[in-house]
Amino acid sequence: MNNNCCEGVRPAKFSRRYFIKQGGIALVGMSTVPAFLQRAIAATPVAGKRQLVVLFQRGAADGLNIVVPFAEPNYYRLRPTIAIPQPRPGNAGEATAAIDLDGYFALHPALAPLGPLFHQNQLAIVHAAGSPDPTRSHFDAQDYMESGTPGVKATQDGWLDRAIGTIPEENASPFRAVAMGPNLPRMLQGSTGAIALPDLRQFRVQPQSAAMASIAQGGFEAMYAQSVDHALHGTGAETFEAIDMLKKIDMAKFPPENGADYPKSALGQRLQQIGVMIKADIGAEVLFVDCGGWDNHVNEGGAQGQLANLLRDLGQSLAAFHHDMGDRMANVVVVTMSEFGRTAKENGNRGTDHGHANCMFVMGGDVKGGQVYGKWPGLEQHQLNDGRDLALTTDFRSVVGEILTKHLGVKDLAPVFPGFSGDPRTFPGLVRA
After folding, report:
1. Exposed, middle or buried: residue 201 (CB in 10 Å: 0-12, 13-18, 19+)?
2. Which end of the chain is more exposed for a tag (fewer CB within 10 A), N or C?
3. The whole model's pTM is what?
4. CB 366, CB 391: distance < 8 Å
5. Beta-bridge partners for 51
6. What percent of the chain has pLDDT over 90?
């Protein structure tokens, strides 16, 4: 997919129409502004608008070494070389032992920045969670978790797209649904009109469909002229001007706050830019970011190694985002997910293979943190899924369904997760009503 589909087009004429002040957008003479932008500006800023940030760990992260069941003897029996050592008194911040959460579960030591958030009730964890579909295919499992219909390949759109579509908003912002990255993820594909932003500093927009990508060489307006995609039909020129409007956001006006120190990694920089979009009040409601590298079949490592390096980046990035948001975090919830977990037993290459259940992090102001939610299935041989994996006890749709209803205000989960009961009685109870 071409990443330069907006380059080479004529500049939008905005010098008389608006100016940027403190990063927020103010318009001079609303009558001179295209209707599309009038709707965008009318929608922002909105006091109390809430955001959901979804972080996808692609490659199937090892939930058993991320949130360690250190009080379970079988954990150490199954993982003789890659298990994380048990917490020790006074080992907070130590790089070689797990960080105690509740006397049974502990964080991988590379996630030390998240420990204080857990104990400040700003971070909740759901263990033994994920998709009920038994596939061990990365492609299928990611597709099911992003479509929200495990086991059904015919679903055309993503659950996050359907969710935002159930919340009608007369003056919805064109930046209501945004993915930070070069491509629009499966989760945001559909009729909402989400956009993918590779980098706010070198802003380009990706088209929503592969068909549109094939004609992107001619620039955004040429693409629009030839496209039959209903998401852009009838708004092409105004959409282009809205894109140019977003280019005017000056990231220098939104430096990290409260001592936040983002890693220089792709994940850290994308979370920082999500923070900029929230601070700029451009009407963003759902935001998506992903990170890869979690498929550790060989030399995964324990307290140090490949997994530890990934978790160090994850922990520092999430903690920096939380600090940066400060009081704004009261209106933000972040949820993490991965397509499936890893085998309970390490393999012969000191790694782990494709498994089943995993763990999810939920962070934010609405979250009843400080707890590890979900029924723990145990790691005895007869308790394992197929005799090899952590068994699933919490469907990921119950976790995100609770966030959607209690945090974003989705009234009916039936169109969001077709075929799933969405019964509030199955919710983990981790979000305040």
Report:
1. exposed
2. C
3. 0.84
4. no
5. 332
6. 68
